[in-house]
Amino acid sequence: MRIKTLLSMMLIASAPITGMAQGQAGIKAENLDKSVRPADDFFTFATGGWQKLNPLPAAFSRFGSFDQLQENNNKRINTILTDLLKKQGKEGSVERKLGDFYKLAMDSVRRNKEGVSPVKPLIDEMEGARTLNDLHALQLKYATFGYGIPFEYGFDADEKNAKMNILNISQGGLSLGQKEYYLDNDKATSGIRKAYRQFIADMFRLYGFSDAQAQAKRDAIMRYETMLALLSKSRTELRDVEANYNKMTLGEFKTNYPNIPLEQLANAEGIKSEYIQSMVVGQPAFLAGVDKLAATSNADELRARMEWDVILSSANYLSDNIRAEYFNFFSKTMRGTKVDYPRWKRATQQTESQMGEALGRIYCERYFPASSKKRMEELVKNLQVSLAERIKAQDWMSEATKKAALEKLSTFYVKVGYPNKWKDLSKLTIDPKKSYYENVQNCKKFWAEDAIKEKAGKPVDKDQWLMTPQTVNAYYNPTTNEICFPAGILQYPFFDPKADDAFNYGAIGVVIGHEMTHGFDDQGRHYDKDGNMTDWWTAEDGKNFEARTGKYADFFSAIKVLPDLYANGKLTLGENLADHGGLEVAFNAFMKTPEAKAGKTIMGFTPEQRFFIAYAGVWANNITEAEIRSRVKSDPHSLGEWRVNGALPHINAWYKAFGVKEGDKLFIPESKRLKLW
């Protein structure tokens, strides 16, 4: 089952506080570039030194302070796995399964010897299926993996009855991720599309097909995916949560899309028909198009698509030459990365992707004490108080909407560090006698079956985590009204236990406020305190909100990120609003601290100045041009530079802290600044 999950995620989170106001600045002087005026380019002023000290590593298309933390975490996790290899735990134990899987992931000698043999039986089976009926039978046989199925489906919360799970169906089928890669004709995108055509043919050859076969299959795949791109909504259009909610019965689905065998696919996976009598279709027009394509499809085209899904889903678990070809296109060509990650790092990440929570349990035992979790929960409560104050202070919001907003804020479900309960992996089998690819497939099947067992026809489990504890990230989920801060990100540069309040509020404080205000951004505001999609705003307040945020989208869309490329303010609107809210809420909370009131200068900077420098430091990074282009097409977050230089000019306190005035490059007249929180 291909699982679709609605998340409003944030690429930053917060960190545990073991001691505040130590009197030492968390800011590092060497990370600054004082030759640049903060009022002209605050990003370079606050991070220019870091950029010079941390040139872009060859294995990265973007490397920032955020990525440094991820690198440190990778080493910690790899230490856990290496230790497990040495000890070889008891047969059937989680430790043994982790160790056996990691050993398979590291054994490139065996994989190079095996070549494509682990996947050859499946490819041969598809080649032997000569008719559409034969191929459809294989799709049912391997329904868990969705070969040749151009849409995603799985159980998740019913957004208008958020306590219950329901089958959700959404668009898919684009190997390049976004429709623009197939349709845009600028030089950079055209180059990627040309390289993709070559990549498809090269991969088919590596899997044993002749030149003529590879070219024919390439042409079939390009034709089909281009048609899907024409049918697909853009990432920006997909931000309209109301448009993505189209409830229908199974009978209506069959009538609307007679050529899509949804019930047969679901049954083949072990999903009983009784659990899909009602469903939510995200993009009906897309499915209508897919239905028409299915009616005119031929066996050669469908077979090529199914085999292409097999190739893409297996490439990272086979021989080095296949992995290299995959890397050369998806990382080197599309993102500008020069070299692949070392084998140990790839093996670590792949182990995490299949048994991440089990690793997370060991990680938290070693690196995240309960005291840190408790302190973090206390800090979240402090920021909730600050956001409540900001909501009450808004003159554009009516008392009725304020009341509902405060109720939603007070019922946030806060998750910090690690889950209260852990997944049972006793039925997951890792067999060292089988190939690495076969074990990965077994893991995928285990997790698909687990999702069906836990969700089909069941209430939503609010204790379920959507990230592993060691993940360097955080999220807000609107249907459970929860904010989650995994243990993995609860470290410097988001938090420094020896640093002053200015640093910690500027870093983690903004992050916590950011996640909270996601509940009131252009998407989150459509969900009430119980997670149900409903309009709890007055009509006038809704208009006031859209009038303000529309100008913010326009502001970011006018930013030139490259000489020939503008940012996408509509795609990044939710994250930009959350950055703005996080800054306002955290600064409001910080100004109540004794340190802020004392006004002590450290390193030549006032408390207010240190707050904003700490915020900017989180986004220090170096990045390739190709990665910039990729992120502008696909990432709902603004680029690091503009999370600083785009966000701060809308914060009045920043102007006061640094004496920014008319004539300075970042100056925006107060009448044109975003006034929301």
Automatic annotation (TrEMBL):
List, in alphabetical order, the Gene Ontology terms for molecular function in this entry. metal ion binding; metalloendopeptidase activity
Tell me which domain of life the UniProt entry assigns to the organism this sequence originates from.
Bacteria
Task: Could you list this entry's UniProt keywords, alphabetically sorted.
Answer: Hydrolase, Metal-binding, Metalloprotease, Protease, Signal, Zinc
One of its Pfam families is Peptidase_M13
PROSITE patterns hit by this protein: NEPRILYSIN
* Domain named Peptidase M13 N-terminal: residues: 38-419
Cofactor requirements of the protein: Zn(2+)
Signal peptide start-end: 1-21
Reply yes or no: does the keyword Metal-binding apply. yes
Protein name, as recorded: Peptidase M13 C-terminal domain-containing protein
Lineage from the top down? Bacteria, Pseudomonadati, Bacteroidota, Bacteroidia, Bacteroidales
